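Support case: user asked for a sample of complex input and structure output to validate their parser. Sending the pair below.
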Amino acid sequence: MLPRSPGLKPWAYQAVNKPSSLTDLFWSFTLLALQGFGGVLAVVQRELVDKKQWLTREQFIEDWAVAQILPGPNVVNLSLMIGDRYFGLRGAMAALAGMLVFPLLVVLLLAAVFAGVADSPATQGALRGMGAVAAGLIAATGLKLVTALKKNVMGALVCWALAAITFVAIALLRFPLAWVLLVVGGMACAWAYRQLGRITP
Amino acid sequence: MSLHLTASDWLGFFTHFATLSLLAVGGAITTAPDMHRYLVGDKLWLTDAQFTSSIALAQAAPGPNVLFVALMGWNVGMNAGGYGHALLGVAVAMLGILLPSTTLTFVAARWGHQNRELQVVRAFKQGMAPIVIALLIATGWILASAHGSKLSNWPLWLLTAVTTVVVWRTKTHLLWLLGAGAVLGALGLV
């Protein structure tokens, strides 16, 4: 039997809103996906956490950690988990379908109709400009989530150190993601496990 | 380019992508090198140009980046005989890359949610939080680094930096920012 962590309440894990129906879930994810040029994650955070408030920042980070560590496209995993949380398997399917169906039609239409346009200098320039914006969107998403670390059981100093090590290893030294997750993530989880055990009920 | 793909070829395509699905930690794009080896190098089902343009087009289009896999299936099918085959290719490639990983995620996430009071589950979520946040910022950095050196491409870096601050500190709609980036790029200003 695995030990249960003492003294933990469902703190800060009560989201304000939730999707009203499977249809709401499907169309919300469709709209998210269709706004996501160069990555959908920034839009998911902005729409579902900041605006609709289906998830708290803490929940979003936790789900994203799971979506990231498991194989497969991360935002697809994330949509599946959010859908499941509210409506079970049917919710997972609705969210997944929302994330994929219309964007798939759009991309196939583009492939069929505009195959030649992709090489023009103006298109290349536009893609470059959108790429630069997309980079900023992702970085800003990370910065916005920093506030969620305040309640972290590991304490601010350890959190900052882990974040700094991860950034240097991935962004500057370009170590493989799997190794960073295994080594830095493993140490972090071990430390968090120890700290959780020290909380008295 | 015209090909003949047998039923066992399609099955091989499916099982290869289904295997990659379970190896795709960090997203489907991390397995792109192996897809290239299989589709372009071994099987000769795609040309180099078709492979590259599948990735480029999917990144330009809205939606999850995994759709580049659908375009690969589409192009293999077009090479094998037209629109009917192309749709089959999309189905084979997408089901292959998604079915194993989404099934695993569904089961694992559900287990984690049902056992969220366990100390080991809490430790995983608390421990991973700062790492996940740093990974997002690092991803932004890596995408920006694709611009090339900071000195000669300073307008692109500036655009990324300005976007970061605007999104972080204001509620400006993201599509306005993407549109501005597209216009600046198309005019050759960045």
